[in-house]
């Protein structure tokens, strides 16, 4: 596809446009056929490719872990069983190191986040033209295969973590206890009048800190993966040049892919770890 009649700008825009389903300006519903048409569909539009790949990768995760669980053997464990056990031990160690309360939901949540995000990130290592070219051959014009480069996906996960954080904050501390955390710190005073005057200041500071958690969680993952995707696209453009430029592009692609393995793993680990820390904060009294 890098060698098609598309200009470099059109090539980049094409690879950064999601397969979008929504309502057209004339009131009909259908797929967008351009980036401008996708933008005009507004907030209620659905990125079909993000939904397809994220759900498919989640189902793949469940299938292999369920398969490993059903074929567990203490005598002759399979390679899949050894891998799954290693992952679970790693998650258990991470949860024990960051979560000080007791909640049987946190470890499964951490496992799901780490594996699911890792699988979504790993899709960035697939050559950028392979799947979009196959999709075009099937009549599908747009196809982005890395769900974590879509802020809709990263914000969806971060808002789910934020909702769990709020739920357990109210559950463990009560309405009064959670409200006290938001209004009684960081500024404190023994004088009742000064304490009341500090309430709005503390609420503003703690409110900003609270609301920044899901935003930073989502944007960190999105920003790193989007930058990685953009670099792969820019490197792919080099294949449209002469032999030396194309050869240099191949070396760059290999080098960036090797380095990107660390990034895709690290971003999944950071998202999981911060989710565990936020849950620990929700269970802990200041």
Give me the secondary-structure topology.
Blueprint: H1 8-15, E1 20-23, E2 29-31, H2 35-40, E3 46-47, H3 48-70, H4 79-98, H5 106-122, H6 130-137, H7 151-183, H8 192-237, H9 243-283
Antiparallel strand pairs: 1-2, 1-3
Name the average pLDDT: 92
User: Could you give a short account of the major beta sheet?
Assistant: 3 strands, antiparallel
Order of helices and strands: HEEHEHHHHHHH
> What Rg, in angstroms, do the CA atoms define?
23 Å
> How many discrete domains?
1
Cα end-to-end separation: 56 Å
Helix content class: over 70%
> What form results from the Cα inertia axes?
globular
The unreliable regions are none
Q: Tell me the fraction of residues in β-strands, as a range.
A: under 5%
Q: Give the structural class.
A: mainly alpha
* Total number of helices: 9
Biggest sheet: strands side by side, in what order?
Answer: 2-1-3
Q: What's the total number of strands? A: 3
Please, could you describe this protein's structure?
The protein has 286 residues and is mainly alpha-helical. The protein has one domain (8-283). The chain is 71% helix and 3% strand. The protein contains nine helices and three strands; from the N terminus they run H-E-E-H-E-H-H-H-H-H-H-H. The chain has helices spanning 8-15, 35-40, 48-70, 79-98, 106-122, 130-137, 151-183, 192-237, 243-283; strands spanning 20-23, 29-31, 46-47. Strand 1 (20-23) and strand 2 (29-31) form a beta hairpin. Helix 1 (8-15) packs across helix 8 and helix 7 runs parallel beside helix 9 (243-283). The radius of gyration is 23 Å and the shape is globular. The model has no long low-confidence stretch (mean pLDDT 92).
């Amino acid at each position: 596809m890098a060698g098609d009649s598309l200009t470099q700008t059109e090539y980049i825009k094409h690879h950064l446009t999601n397969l979008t389903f929504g309502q057209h300006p004339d009131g009909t519903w259908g797929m967008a056929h351009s980036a401008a048409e996708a933008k005009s569909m507004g907030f209620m539009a659905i990125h079909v490719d993000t939904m397809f790949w994220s759900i498919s990768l989640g189902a793949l995760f469940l299938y292999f872990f369920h398969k490993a669980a059903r074929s567990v053997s203490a005598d002759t464990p399979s390679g899949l069983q050894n891998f799954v056990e290693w992952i679970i031990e790693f998650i258990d160690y991470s949860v024990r190191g960051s979560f000080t309360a007791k909640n049987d939901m946190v470890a499964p949540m951490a496992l799901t986040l780490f594996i699911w995000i890792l699988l979504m990130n790993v899709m960035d290592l697939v050559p950028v033209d392979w799947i979009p070219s196959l999709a075009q051959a099937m009549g599908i014009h747009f196809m982005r295969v890395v769900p974590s480069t879509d802020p809709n996906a990263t914000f969806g996960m971060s808002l789910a973590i934020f909702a769990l954080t709020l739920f357990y904050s109210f559950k463990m501390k009560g309405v009064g206890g959670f409200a006290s955390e938001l209004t009684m710190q960081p500024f404190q005073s023994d004088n009742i009048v000064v304490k009341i005057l500090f309430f709005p200041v503390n609420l503003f500071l703690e409110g900003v800190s609270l609301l920044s958690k899901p935003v930073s969680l989502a944007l960190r993952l999105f920003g790193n993966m989007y930058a990685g995707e953009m670099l792969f696209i820019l490197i792919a453009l080099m294949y449209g040049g002469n032999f030396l430029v194309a050869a240099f592009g191949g070396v760059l692609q290999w080098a960036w892919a090797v380095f990107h393995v660390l990034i895709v793993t690290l971003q999944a680990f950071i998202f999981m770890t911060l989710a565990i820390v936020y849950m620990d904060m929700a269970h802990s009294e200041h």
